Amino acid sequence: MIKPLDILQQYWGFTNFRPLQEEIIQSVLDKRDTVALLPTGGGKSVCFQIPALVEEGICIVVSPLIALMNDQVNALTRMGIKSMALTGSISYADLDRLLDNCIYGNYKFLYLSPERLQQELVQHRIEKMLVNLIAVDEAHCISQWGNDFRPAYKNISILRSIKPEVPVIALTATATPEVLTDTINELELNNPVVYQKSFFRENLSYQVWKEEDKYYRLEHLLKENESAIIYTRNRKSTEEISKHLNLKGIHTTFFHGGISAEDKKTKLQNWLNETTPVMVATSAFGMGIDKANVRTVIHLDLPESLESYFQEAGRAGRDGRYSQAILLQNEADKTQVKRQFISTLPTTEFLKHIYKKLCNHFYIAYGEGVFTTHSFNFEKFCVQYELHTMKTYLAIQTLDRLSIIKLSFEFGRKTEVQFLIPSKKVISYLETNMKISIIGKTLLRIYTGIFEKQTAIDLELIASKSGQSTKEIIETLKQFEKDEVISLNLATTDASLTFIEPREDDRTINRIAKTVERLNTNKKNQVNAVLGYIENNKMCKSMQLLRYFGDQSDTPCGICSVCASQQSLPSKKELQLISREILVLLEENSLTSREICERLTFAEAKVIFVLQQLLDANKITLNLNNKYNII
C-alpha cells in the first residue's frame, strides 16, 4: 500500500502533515466513520483526498458550495487526478454519460450537491461504482441547530443505504457541541472517531472597537503593502469603500457575488499576488481560499452569527505570525443587525403568502408544477404584489433552504455593458439610426461610467426612459455587440426558480412549520450571541469565542482588545509576538522607534518597552542616527 506521506509529497509537495491530519487519514484507512472538526485553514480537504488516493475506487464528496467544488476539482485536475463535479443544469443524457465515466473511467473523485442524491439515476449509478469513501463537507448543514441547516443534507442517508460498508468522514470548521452531537446522529455515523483541533489561535488578536467614523479608522488600521480583507454586508459598500481607500493611496479591489466570473478571477489573482493587497468583500469571498500572509481581517458590519465571524476572522494569520481580526461597531450597528436578521424573519403565515403568490405568478395549478423551472425577475415580482423586498427575499431564501423551491445562483445578476470605442465615435455611430440613437443616448445619460468599466444596467429602467420595449432594447444591445461598439453580458432575468414539490398551498408550508420555528429561534440566539460578544469587555475575546464552540478555556490570550486594555506592560505572549515582529521589520531596514511603532499595531508604550528588552538582551543595537539594527 502507498503511504499517505508519499502521496502528500508527490501531489502537494509537503514533507509533513498538519496537526491531526495524519491521525484522521489513518482512521479513514482503518474503515472507521470519522469526524474532523478543524478550524478554517486547518487542511480539511487533504483528510479525505489522501485516503481516497491510497485506496482503489472513487470517493464521493457531498458539498453545498458549487464554487468550492469547482475549485477543488480544478486543483485536483491540475495535479493529474481525475475528478468531476455534477453542478448546474445538466441534461439527462450528459448526466448519464458523466456517471458512466465515474464507473468505467478511473475517476477518483465525484463531487455533488445533496440535492443530486434525490435523482434515481444518480442513485442507480452509485450502486455500480466502486466507492472507497463518502466525504461530507460542511457536515454541520445537516443539523437543525447548525448555522447553515439544509434539509437536503438528510439525503445523505441514501448513500449509507446504498453503500453501507463504505466509511464516512464528516468535515466541518464550525460546530457547537449541540450541533456536533446532532450531526453525528443525523448522518447515522457508526461509533465515529471524533478529531477536534482546538480553535485557539495564539497569534490572532481578536479586537472589538467602538467607532463612529469607520472610514477614518480603516485608513489608520491598514499598513502599507500588507495583505488584508475588509468584510462588509452589501455589494454597493464594497465598491464605495474600495474607491475611498484607493483615493487615499491604499491599493484595494472589491469582490461580491454580482461581478462576472472573469472579473472574480482577475481580482482574486491580483489580491493573491499582492498587486492589490487589500480586498473589500462581502461574505461571498474567502471560502476555500488559502492565503497564509493575511495580516488583518476587518469587519465593518456586525456578523449574523459567531460561526460566520469565526470563519471569516480565521483567514488572518495562517502563517503563524501576529495578525488581527478587528470588528468595528457602534450603537447603530446593534439596531441594524436586529432589524436585518430578527425583525425580518419570515413567519409561517408569511411563507404561505409568498408561496401562493409565486404559484399564482407562474400559473401553477393545484397539485402540479413539480420540477418546472421559470425565469424569475425578483424586483418585478415584489412590485407586482406590493411586497417588502427584504422580507420577501428572506422568505424565498427560506423556501429554497427547506427544498420547497430552488433558486438559481444567478440571483441578483444584472445585464452588464461597457462601451469599447471613444465617446465621439459612439455619437457618430448612434446617428446612423433613430431607434439606435434613442436607446444609445438613454444609456449614456443614465450610466456615466459606462466607458470606464463593465456597468450593471436596468433594462426596465432604460425601457421606461426611452419609450422602447425591453425586447427592442435587447435586440439593439446585441447589434451594438455585433458591431463591436460594446461588450455585453446579457441577463434578461434575475434568476430562474424551480418548484421542487407539487403545489398544495397551506399543506406544503405546514409540513415545514416546526422547522421554520426552530430556524427562527436559532437565528435569534445567534444574533444575541454576537451582541453578547461585542458588549462583553471583561472576558478575553478569544475565551469568549472558544467557549461558544464548547472549549472551556480559562487562559486569557494576552493579545486581544480586552487583554490589552487590562495591561500596562506587555504580557509574556505579547512580549514574544512584539519581539518577533520587530526583528522581522529590522531584517529589512534600520528603523527609528517612531517608524517601528507606526508599522506595528501594538500600543506604543509596549513596543518601546520591548525595544528596551531587546537592547538589554543584545539582540539589537541603536546607531548614531537613532535607528535600530539587528546584531
List the helices and strands and how they pair.
Blueprint: H1 4-12, H2 21-29, E1 34-37, H3 44-54, E2 58-62, H4 66-78, E3 83-86, H5 92-104, E4 109-112, H6 120-128, E5 131-136, H7 156-162, E6 168-172, H8 177-186, E7 193-196, E8 204-210, H9 214-221, E9 228-231, H10 235-247, E10 252-255, H11 261-272, E11 278-281, E12 296-299, H12 306-313, E13 323-329, H13 331-341, H14 348-361, E14 373-376, H15 378-384, H16 389-401, E15 405-407, E16 415-419, H17 423-430, H18 434-446, E17 455-457, H19 459-466, H20 470-482, E18 486-489, E19 495-499, H21 506-510, H22 513-535, H23 541-548, H24 561-565, H25 572-588, H26 593-599, H27 604-616, E20 620-622, E21 628-630
Parallel strand pairs: 1-6, 1-7, 2-4, 2-5, 3-4, 5-6, 8-13, 9-11, 9-12, 10-11, 12-13
Antiparallel strand pairs: 14-19, 15-19, 16-17, 16-18, 20-21
Helix pairs in contact: 2-3, 5-6, 13-22, 14-16, 18-19, 25-27
Task: Give a structural overview.
By secondary structure, the chain is an alpha/beta fold. It contains 27 helices and 21 strands. The strands form 5 sheets. The chain has a 7-stranded parallel beta sheet with strand order 3-4-2-5-6-1-7, with helices on both faces. The two termini are 51 Å apart. The model has no long low-confidence stretch (mean pLDDT 89).
- Separation of the first and last Cα atoms: 51 Å
Spatial strand arrangement across the major sheet:
3-4-2-5-6-1-7
Strand proportion, as a percent range, falls in 5-15%
Question: What is the typical, i.e. mean, pLDDT?
Answer: 89
Q: CATH topology of the largest domain, what is it called?
A: Rossmann fold
The H-level CATH homologous superfamily of the largest domain, spelled out, is: P-loop containing nucleotide triphosphate hydrolases
Structural class: alpha/beta
Helix content: 40-55%
Number of helices: 27
Give me the count of strands.
21
Structural shape: globular
> What's the story with the biggest beta sheet?
7 strands, parallel
CA radius of gyration = 27 Å
CATH class value of the largest domain: Alpha Beta
Number of domains: 5
Uncertain spans, ≥5 residues at pLDDT below 50?
Answer: none
Corresponding CATH architecture of the largest domain: 3-Layer(aba) Sandwich
